[in-house]
Amino acid sequence: MLDKKEPARYGDWIQWKLRQDRNKNIIFVHKINDVHLQVECEPHVSKELSSFFEFEVPGAKFMPAYRNRIWDGKIRLFSQKTNKIYVGLLSYLEDFFKNNELKYILHDNVKDNKSIDPKDVEGFIKSLKIPFDARDYQFNAICTAIEKSRGLLLSPTASGKSYIIYCLVRYYRMMNKKILILVPTTSLVEQMTNDFISYGWTESNIHKIYSGHDKQTDKSVVISTWQSLYKLNKKYFDQYECIFGDEAHTFKAKSLTNIMEKLEDCPYRFGFTGTLDGTQTHRLVLEGLFGKVEKVISTKELMDKKTLAQLNANCIVLKYNENESKQVKDHKYSEEINFLVSHNKRNNFITNLCKKLKGNTLCLFQLVEKHGNVLYDMMKGNNTHYVHGGTSAEDREKVRELVNNSNNSIIIASYGTFSTGINIPNLNNIVFASPSKSRIRVLQSIGRGLRKSTSKDSVLIYDICDDLSYKGKKNYTLLHFEERINIYNEESFTYKIDTLYLL
Questions:
Q1: Residue 453 per-residue DSSP state
Q2: Of the candidates 271, 51, 78, which has an alpha carbon nearest to the alpha carbon of residue 161?
Q3: Strands 361-365 and 410-414
Q4: What is the set of domains in the chain, with CATH numbers?
Q5: Largest CA distance in the chain
Q6: Mean pLDDT, residues 441-468
Q7: 426 — phi, psi (to 5°)?
Q8: What does the alpha-carbon distance between residue 269 and residue 274 come to, in Å, rounded to a whole number?
Q9: What is the pTM of this model?
């Protein structure tokens, strides 16, 4: 057992280790800072750990660094050179030791779980005088976060994620901690601020950072886009003791690690996401930086509780004539997409569908110039709005408010602007005008319509699929549709498939 009186600073680690046990077969693990653990072990163990925490990066072969032979397409979460690993991967590290029957000792500074009384947490939340009570799963998530001091909370759209974040922010402000909240877009900076105000705070407690805003402030809570901060030096981040990463799955890996690794003295770390992309690499990087995944609740459970709108997916398979299928059979993916977005009959079908649907409709596309502009020209009218990367945050918010107070509007929006984080409860229909197989993109897009409103308790998804198969060879977008069906099955979503011939 470790000597409780022994100092936890790294400078005393080696001496502590030698005094504890002279046996070189024992592995010692010490926390260097709030980012990295140090593993003291024999070279052969270090090599095995490096191999264990080595993963292929999905899609690496298409990246320039791989093609130019600068990078082998793998990510290594354990450094054989330094014997360092992210703190958030401690449980995986311990599993490796146990499964391989390796003796190890954790320094006292490694585990810092707290014991809390749920009644105290309940009393604290009530003291905040939020206009409504915490749901059971929200309360459990808050307790778990406080107990473990870090974690990656898997909390789907409309689960009340901002409520959980707000309660935790108030808890750590009570402890006099300076807090940084990172979000992927300027819209979410404003939305998070507005949510906090609706819970009972004033804007005077918050400093917002995005384009044109000062990065320095005396305020104790900062809400910022990660793009605004990731290039700043480590000294800037020394002021923060608590970090929240909202929509953590959207952060570019290098930018996220760039920020999180600078927060060396930040013990309280919480990532929030509604979806992970299903790859082990993606999950482990996020867990390493924030902490172990903690499932708050699932979308299906929220539907069963009647907290979310009921989802019904109408999958429409568009079949093309044989000549067109033959024309496309040898196309690359980008060429197939160009064929589809410029197909008049396909665009007419999408246009007529959006115009005929009852209620507010969100039509999502991928390519602005080649597709978004075309669809908008075909649908534009008094109740049609167009949002893309060039649309300012202020104008996006205006569109969101207009649609939320409308009954028959159409938003034609790029995936990058309106598939994540945008809150429009009064949204009745979502049309996937551009095919995608990304688990994150699909689930985040669906999430835009799952919030209930006084006039809505269900949402319709129209998933457009293109069947250009020729002599048994399936085209790219048909294969991507099959991936989406797998996602619907995994999530227990209700869907039906219809076929329409574009002749």
A1: B
A2: 271
A3: parallel
A4: 10-106 (3.30.780.20), 118-297 (3.40.50.300), 302-502 (3.40.50.300)
A5: 81
A6: 88
A7: -85, 50
A8: 17
A9: 0.80
Query: What tokens were used for 279?
Result: 């790859």
Q: CA angle at residue 455 from 454 to 460, to 5 degrees?
A: 125
Rg (the chain; Cα; Å): 25
> Which residues have C-beta within 8 Å of that of residue 182, sequence separation ≥ 6?
224, 225, 226, 229, 243, 244, 245, 246, 251, 259
pLDDT in tens, 85-97: 999 999 999 999 9
Distances (CA, A) of 461 to 95, 378, 433, 446, 487: 42, 21, 11, 7, 14
Coil, helix or strand at residue 176? coil
Element (H, E) at 170: helix 161-174
**According to the model, what pLDDT value does residue 438 have?**
81
> Do 365 and 159 contact (CB within 8 A), yes or no?
no
Phi-psi region of 144 (alpha: psi -120 to 50; beta: other; left: phi over 0): alpha
Q: Confidence class of residue 12 from pLDDT cuts 50, 70 and 90?
A: low
Determine whether 196 is exposed, middle or buried from the number of CB atoms within 10 Å of its CB (0-12, 13-18, 19+).
buried
**Both structure tokens of 13:** 């680690």
Q: Is 219:206 a contact under the CB 8 Å cutoff?
A: yes
* CA 258 – CA 33 distance, rounded (Å): 15
Closest CA to 216 of 227, 228, 204: 228
CB 472 within 8 A of CB 291: no
Helix, strand or coil for residue 215?
A: coil
Cβ pair 158, 451 in contact under 8 A: yes
